[in-house]
């Protein structure tokens, strides 16, 4: 077209922009977008293409600057562009802009995607954590109240969608595994206050993370809170046993494990191996034997690791008590 002195149209530039976006070539995409701007304000599709490229490549500073430019030039956002803009605001911590866009979306009747709602919830939870670390108690209380209100509204919308509860619990697990336990706990509490039982996997992941961070008090608080609000099952018990072991409270871990077994809850083989290993280190061979009997008589399906852990423990016991008969019995079993 250029060699024949044919001037590209807006449509041609739009098509070319999508090509550069697909190739993830930011420099070329920006050149084409600047050429588009000579025809006036680009349409929302072209704006969304460039913005999604910035987000995909992690160029949040460019994305934020681009959003400010769009807002300044009063470009009207369609549903798709709203979602992308909101994602950038959430990832960049642009709370004020996110609030404005959220109001615009609500006023315009725009239905948010689940992924967008998750980004909003995560943003407010993250902001609340950072505010809680500030010194000014008055501004802290006000900001936390605002975040809680906005988060609650978005969380309720998420819970109204199919599978919304599971999506919220996925976020709790994600935050916990990333070590963002304050945010995970806050979201866990919000679900409980709304009368929604967090999935056992979400509660147990957070308890295990507390154990890894040697935060036994927080793990115990969450365990007690979970048991008060809803009936707890095997995965949460197993997580608490794991946390107690990691924090060195072996005796309490053993008693909780036996209580769990007496109540008929499933016993996780990984938890069994961890508990037996810690009991062995502390020379508590009778407790290990009790667990072995319970597993064999309770027909708990053990894996190779669990069997090897039992054998190792019995070897330790043998070296100290010359209990060869019992060792051979368990190896045959």
From TrEMBL:
**Pfam families this protein is in?**
PPR_2 (PF13041), PPR_long (PF17177)
* Domain PROP1-like PPR: start-end pairs: 1-117
In terms of domain of life, where is this protein from? Eukaryota
**Which InterPro entries has this protein been placed in?**
PPR_rpt (IPR002885), PROP1-like_PPR_dom (IPR033443), TPR-like_helical_dom_sf (IPR011990)
Say yes or no: keyword Transit peptide present. Answer: yes
Among Gene3D superfamilies, the record links this protein to: Tetratricopeptide repeat domain (1.25.40.10)
Q: What is this protein called?
A: PROP1-like PPR domain-containing protein
Organism this protein belongs to: Aegilops tauschii subsp. strangulata
């Amino acid at each position: 077209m250029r060699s024949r002195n044919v001037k590209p149209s807006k449509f041609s530039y739009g098509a070319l922009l999508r090509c550069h976006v697909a190739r993830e070539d930011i420099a070329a995409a920006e050149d084409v977008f600047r050429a588009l701007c000579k025809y006036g304000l680009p349409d929302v599709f072209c704006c969304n293409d460039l913005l999604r490229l910035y987000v995909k490549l992690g160029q949040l500073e460019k994305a934020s600057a681009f959003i400010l430019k769009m807002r300044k030039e009063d470009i009207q956002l369609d549903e798709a562009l709203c979602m992308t803009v909101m994602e950038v605001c959430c990832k960049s911590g642009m709370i004020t802009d996110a609030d404005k866009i959220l109001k615009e979306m609500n006023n315009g009747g725009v239905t948010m995607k689940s992924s967008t709602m998750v980004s909003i919830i995560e943003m407010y939870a993250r902001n609340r954590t950072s505010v809680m670390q500030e010194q000014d108690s008055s501004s802290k209380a006000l900001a936390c109240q605002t975040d809680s209100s906005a988060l609650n509204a978005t969380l309720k919308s998420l819970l109204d969608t199919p599978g919304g509860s599971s999506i919220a619990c996925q976020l709790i697990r994600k935050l916990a595994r990333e070590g963002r336990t304050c945010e995970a706990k806050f979201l866990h509490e919000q679900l409980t206050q709304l009368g929604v039982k967090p999935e056992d996997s979400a509660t147990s992941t957070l308890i295990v993370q507390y154990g890894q961070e040697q935060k036994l008090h927080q793990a115990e608080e969450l365990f007690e809170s979970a048991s008060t609000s809803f009936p707890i099952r095997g995965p949460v018990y197993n997580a608490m046993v794991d946390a107690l072991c990691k924090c060195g409270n072996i005796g309490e871990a053993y008693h909780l494990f036996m209580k769990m077994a007496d109540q008929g809850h499933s016993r996780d083989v990984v938890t069994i191996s961890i508990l037996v290993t810690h009991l062995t280190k502390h020379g508590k061979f009778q407790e290990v034997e009790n667990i072995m009997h319970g597993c064999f008589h309770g027909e708990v399906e053990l894996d190779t690791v669990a069997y090897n852990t039992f054998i190792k423990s019995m070897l330790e016991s043998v070296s100290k008590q010359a209990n060869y008969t019992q060792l051979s019995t368990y190896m045959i079993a």
